[in-house]
Design brief:
Blueprint (H helix, E strand, L loop, with lengths): L1 E4 L8 H13 L4 E4 L12 H13 L3 E5 L7 H12 L4 E4 L2 H13 L6 E3 L8 H8 L3 E5 L6 H7 L7 E2 L2 E2 L1 E14 L4 H5 L18 E4 L5 E6 L2 E9 L4 H6 L2 E6 L6 H12 L5 H10 L6 E2 L17
Parallel strand pairs: 1-2, 1-13, 2-3, 3-4, 4-5, 5-6, 6-9, 9-13, 12-14
Antiparallel strand pairs: 7-8, 9-12, 10-11, 11-12
Helix pairs in contact: 3-4, 9-10
Pfam family, one: Peptidase_U32
Keywords: 4Fe-4S, Hydrolase, Iron, Iron-sulfur, Metal-binding, Protease, Ubiquinone biosynthesis
GO molecular function: 4 iron, 4 sulfur cluster binding; metal ion binding; peptidase activity
Length: 312
């Protein structure tokens, strides 16, 4: 199994973003997904900036993927999506059906294009759906975050994988980070500050890991990240390597957070290479200044907010 650094889901200042990816370039992850997935108003880093950053990471030996937005709501956003999908310097991760349509047309016009990635927000919950999407030109599938690992393995089993345009479809799962659960046309961060979406004053820049939402009993429940709702807790599958291998998973997606992320990547790599046992890695993860507790309920067919179980 390999490691993938997922797209940065928050709006960090440009200097912080550049420092973060300089660390990623030196880290052990093989693949990096770049791009603005959540909100087109976060325009401090534009298309040409992402491409330039992708080239730097490619020189550092990383495989680079450019991601499209998960919820497209305007013609301007569609134009940006088409531009991103029509380039072929880097593979593209489809965030929604509009990206799929452009990517499928591009693949039909030029069969030599590199396969695209089916992002975690494409609704693929059975083998027939994966086969249908693979035929459009996909080569890689990121499973929806709430799927249990045995269900992932049943949809794309390692012994009989779905075939894409360049061979078996590779499976990736969301292995670390706040779970991206939903998107809305409304911006909840702006609403929290009693601002309109168009006059949001870019308040989401103040929340490096999203804005924590608690229940009436004071328990952390969700995190608001502009138009995106996330879990307050962090998915962590570091103790599930056996189940991940049985499910045929080829890569683990680690979603960036504000503090301690470089060590998170190192610990996952150490467990995959068997230079550290999962129990020790989990114990250290629990000591890091992460923005929430560690959970893995969805992967085990339990409630998603159930805390990670210690390895047996």
């Amino acid at each position: 199994m390999q490691l993938t650094i997922g797209p940065l889901l928050y709006w960090w200042p440009r200097a912080a973003l550049m420092d973060f990816y300089a660390q990623v370039a030196e880290g052990p992850a093989q693949t990096v997904v770049l791009g603005e997935l959540v909100c087109s108003r976060r325009n401090e880093f534009k298309f040409d900036d992402w491409v330039a950053l992708g080239r730097e990471l490619a020189v550092a030996g990383k495989r680079v993927v450019l991601a499209t937005q998960a919820l497209v709501m305007s013609e301007a956003e569609l134009r940006s999506l088409r531009r991103l999908c029509e380039q072929d310097e880097f593979a593209v991760e489809a965030g929604d059906a509009s990206a799929l349509r452009v990517l499928a047309a591009a693949a039909a016009a030029d069969p030599s294009r590199q396969p695209f990635v089916l992002g975690p927000h494409i609704n693929i919950y059975n083998r027939a759906a994966l086969e249908e999407h693979a035929a459009l030109g996909a080569g890689h599938w990121v499973a929806p975050v709430e799927l249990a690992l045995d269900a992932v393995g049943a949809i794309n089993p390692p012994a009989e994988p779905v075939l894409g345009i360049d061979g078996p479809i590779r499976t990736e799962v969301f292995a670390f980070g706040r779970l991206p659960l939903a998107f809305s046309a409304r911006c909840f961060t702006a609403r929290h500050h009693r601002l309109s979406k168009d006059g949001c004053e870019f308040r989401c820049r103040d929340d490096a890991d999203g804005l924590l939402l608690q229940t009436t009993e004071g328990q952390p429940f969700l995190a608001l990240n502009g138009i995106q709702s996330q879990s307050a807790a962090l998915q962590c599958l570091i103790t599930q390597t056996g189940a991940l291998r049985r499910a045929g998973v080829s890569s683990l997606r680690l979603s960036p957070c504000g503090l301690g992320f470089a060590r998170v990547v190192e610990l996952f790599q150490a467990v995959l290479t068997q230079s550290l046992c999962a129990r020790e890695a989990l114990a250290e993860l629990r000591q890091l200044p992460l923005p929430g507790t560690l959970v893995d309920g969805f992967a085990r067919r339990h409630a998603g907010l159930e805390e990670v179980m210690d390895p047996a």
